[in-house]
DNA sequence: GGCTAAGCGAGACGGTACGTCCTGTCTTCCT
DNA sequence: AGGAAGACAGGACGTACCGTCTCGCTTAGCC
């Protein structure tokens, strides 16, 4: 993944030997995500199953990723679809759109993947660090811009603690996903959270 | 653990044979927590390591817990110290005390344990469900009571969405712990979040 | 193998834990020999195939033998049936009996095993050394005794070079086995070699 | 090798494209022999190691030889120096010269190669057959001629069993090489064997 | 005080997955 | 077209745990 990116950035140093198969890359990532969704967690899937489902030899997997964890983090990165950059209506509309996107994601297949993976993360600090850098931060940045713009337009209070607000919004929307599967979040959770955030709870 | 509780509830049905060693129970749970902190995640520790560190045979572990996950959830339950029931000052003071307690917990050893475990949780829904029922919900209930009292005393707005507020507070305080270890949360995060929650962000 | 022998020599120090299964020992050695005969050479068989055919887990094999080579040498040792101690008739009769036994062995299943294995032996000098010590030398000793007795009884010349004679007899009977499978040795090879050895070739 | 021979026999059919590099041929065979001596047995060396040591791509090896075994047999053929055709003195002198040559060969580097290879031979019958035809038989033929001449000159007995005598001589001289490396054969083994063969062991 | 039943440390059992290495084939660019 | 490089599918290697089982030995309560 990262190598592919790196290589494609510069105009191909023309390495000798047979080039790596792009189909294999895709098949492996695809198989990984499927298994990650079906089974569960880093522990729940096996490299051998990944290779088998991808129709690929084990060595083809290990040539690209040094171990299971690194494969999984790259597979997850493949779904890091950025949050929809909000149209730019009222701050409330923008925040609501973002909150609902996060809420939807929670139940989506990849949502589960992320959580399954992040659990065992203390063991792999770089895994977590990279995930933060490449996935989490860009998303917060979008919210941060919406909030800043709100301050400028006067929609939000001038002394707003932007980071605390981000933390609350993101926290509320993602924490819920840890509830038992049965406990579906209420449909209107996004709206209720955004409104509570806007108005505050003080009388 | 659960069996121990069950047994200690009724006055000993007086089973025949040698009774189970209480020292073994403790040693196993202790070893589990130590390994959970040192290593990481459900996947990171092995039953053999637990037994070895506890100075106990593997069968002594398996006699008490049917598998790794059940052992771990019981070990975690051993640290479910309840949040300090707030003294009952102003709502702000109470919320702040709770928030700071959660914040402190995040960096504590058991804090890490919880997160390490919750990751691979999709595979073990009952683990997660039980954890929610026995650990998470009681804690939310404490916050819930503080908020309800605030509404009654008029400190908080009458149309407050209690659940949304809980979600935001808990989410903000716990999500942070997933940042890379280096990224220590700001000292005053609790205060900033509580104030932002109280006042709202709208102008 | 060696461990079993060692243990059974002394009256069991009563080691803790579940004792090793004698059935597994047998099944593994049996499977090894079968595969050694069917397939060929150290390289031709796999530990996984051995375990599978023996109906045993791989770890059960590796608990007893540290690697493929050590397993194979022990399997071969299991067939080191000693040469029939000759009845003690005339020297010619005794030598003929021994030569014919060696000749028969050549075509037998285990004969092939030995050769298949001895090939890659430079890599495992201890394998070869042990095989010599435990299998080859005892056999030569039998021939040596027959020749010495012949000298004493006056059947053989007094100035006989015993070791050279052994080398010639054993060499002639075993070298042949390296001929292509098609080239069956003549029925009467043993007799012809013994007589040539007795009479010499000089006029 | 075989292809090279075939091509060099006829005056080059003038194939299109770049001709094969003679340097590559040599480098590959050289590398094979070196590894065969250092490591051990057909199983002990890898095509990748051969190609790497020869400074050659794997495909360059596989273009010339279809698999490991064929490469090895050709590499060995490169050392099949014929036995010195004996000067034609007394039969004893001739046999002694041949025996000593065989004895010397045993300790030489290629000696080891041959044995290393012959071990795993059941799996590759054609390898063995070819080796017999091209290396072993020519050598026996030399001994055979010496013995026949001895019969004609009256030095050897008229009713000599030529094949049995060959078997004993060759067997005695080559079998020894299977002893552990430490056990060097006695200096005078050749002489003792030849004399024992000549005089017989009977009183 | 002996009997009975369960607990105990130890470790073997059949399995599964790991990550490494090598085989023999293929695909690319360079000469 | 040959050559060097190296990717490809496949499969065995030897290791580490899983959760179960079998040993011989305590350690209790009940007779």
Report on the architecture of this protein:
Chains A, B, C, D: This is Transcriptional regulator, TetR family. Chains A, B, C, D: It comes from Thermomonospora curvata (strain ATCC 19995 / DSM 43183 / JCM 3096 / KCTC 9072 / NBRC 15933 / NCIMB 10081 / Henssen B9). Chains A, B, C, D: InterPro entries: Homeodomain-like_sf, HTH-type_TetR-like_transc_reg, HTH_TetR, Tet_transcr_reg_TetR-rel_C_sf, TetR_C. Chains A, B, C, D: Keywords: DNA-binding, Transcription, Transcription regulation. Four copies of one chain form a homotetramer. The first copy, chain A, has 203 residues and is an all-alpha fold. Chain A has two domains: 59 residues, Arc Repressor Mutant, subunit A, CATH 1.10.10; 109 residues, Tetracycline Repressor, domain 2 (Orthogonal Bundle). Chain A is built from eleven helices and no strands. The first copy, chain A, is elongated, with a radius of gyration of 20 Å. Chain A starts with a helix and ends with a helix. The N terminus of chain A is likely disordered. Chains in contact: A-B, C-D. Chains C and D meet through α3, α8, α9, α10 and α11 of C and α3, α8, α9, α10 and α11 of D. Chain A binds a DNA duplex (31 and 31 nucleotides) through α4 and α5.
